[in-house]
Write a structure and sequence with these properties.
mainly beta; 10 Kd Chaperonin, Protein Cpn10, Chain O; six-stranded antiparallel sheet; two-stranded antiparallel ribbon; 0% helix
């Protein structure tokens, strides 16, 4: 029965030391309005921490492109010669090592993402 009042939202318990302003790891379930096709993967590049060299802060324009990212969405899958689907090696939420200049940069809801073939992912970080 819905009484028409307020709704109660249940949230998972936070790990010790985390506050509601700091999301717990592995809770990055973003609603992305984009589905890659075939063997393509949508990756959210992870920004590097602010770098300091000898007390000098390196400006954003001089920083290298990120080489780590998080897999946000998987495509429909690659098919082999027999027409059977080939399973992805990576899965959503995996932290991956990506090529410096690999993939195509896209903006979705103001956030930067990379669309790349699974073959362009260099490895899965543990």
């Amino acid at each position: 029965m819905h009484g028409g009042g307020s709704e109660t939202i249940l949230r998972p318990a936070l790990p010790p030391g985390k506050t509601p302003q700091q999301p717990a790891e592995n809770t990055t379930s973003m609603a992305i309005k984009m589905q890659p096709l075939a063997d393509r993967v949508l990756v959210h590049p992870l920004e590097e921490k602010e770098q300091k060299k000898g007390g000098i802060i390196i400006p954003d324009t001089a920083k290298e492109k990120p080489q780590e990212g998080e897999v946000v969405a998987l495509g429909t899958g690659k098919t082999d010669e027999k027409g059977e689907k080939i399973a992805f090696t990576v899965k959503t939420g995996d932290r991956v090592l990506i090529s410096k200049y690999g993939g195509t940069e896209v903006k979705i809801d103001g956030e930067s993402y990379l669309i790349m073939r699974e073959d362009d992912i260099l490895g899965i970080l543990g």
